[in-house]
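We modelled the chain as a single entity of 138 amino acids. Its sequence is:
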Amino acid sequence: MNYRATARLSAKAIGPAPYLDLSDLARRPMPASARGALLRSVPQQPTEPIRAVWDTTQEPEPLRPGSILLSWKSSRGGVDVTARLGLAATTVVLATWPNLNSDWTRIVHPTLYEVAGLHTALTITTDALHLANHLADA
């Protein structure tokens, strides 16, 4: 699933390619200049790469609706991962996975994929309702 969200990126923070595999990013600490990895696509299969970019905007700027931002930090020999979801009026904590080890992208994939699909379905439904109301008023 692809997102319409745009991120303000630092070329220094993201390296030569704008879209990187989250599994590559997850093996390293987050750069001090990034507030997290903004997901660009969540594939259906957990074996396919999750594409992401570093988001270098400063908090508390809200995420665009449908955007998912992952952040992580070292904790007790593992990594604590937090996902945030952008909604129309706010940004909410979607999930937290404490003390994950090794390549944690396969663990978070099912939640990210399902939420991205639900948000897309709700967006399409909302657009259809707006169109139906507009046609009813015409």
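As a brief sanity check on the tokenised model: The helical segments are 11-14, 22-26, 105-137. The chain has a mean pLDDT of 84.
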